[in-house]
Amino acid sequence: MRKAELIDRIVKGAGLSRKKAALALDALLVAVRGSLAGNEALRIPGLGTFKVAQRELGRVLTREPAGRCRFRLHVCRSLLLRRR
């Protein structure tokens, strides 16, 4: 689903104008980004818990598709969702 489609659903569900729905969605996304950037868990009842996980350098080893050489990937962060 794209952002415009999500705004349309907010307009229909909450009865807001399109402009107010877009502002509300933007405010929500800024709050979510800020929470996850600060390594805080984000709990949404009925959906689950979002948190940022970091993979260590030594545990990530991959291979070139042709299989000629192996190399280590950089430390990366990924978003996890745990449903409860």
| Termini gap | 23 Å
Structural class: alpha+beta
Number of strands: 5
Counted up, domains total 2
Across the major sheet, the strand order is 1-2-5
Apparent shape: elongated
Strand content: 25-35%
How do the helices and strands line up, and which of them pair or pack?
Elements: H1 3-14, H2 18-37, E1 42-44, E2 48-55, E3 61-63, E4 70-72, E5 76-82
Antiparallel strand pairs: 1-2, 2-5, 3-4
Helix pairs in contact: 1-2
Q: What do you see in this structure?
A:
The protein is of the alpha+beta class and 84 residues long. It folds into two domains: 1-38; 41-84, no CATH class. 38% of the residues lie in helices and 29% in strands. It contains two helices and five strands, in the order H-H-E-E-E-E-E. The protein has a three-stranded antiparallel sheet with strand order 1-2-5, with helices on one face. A two-stranded antiparallel sheet has the order 3-4. Strand 1 (42-44) and strand 2 (48-55) form a beta hairpin. The mean pLDDT is 85.
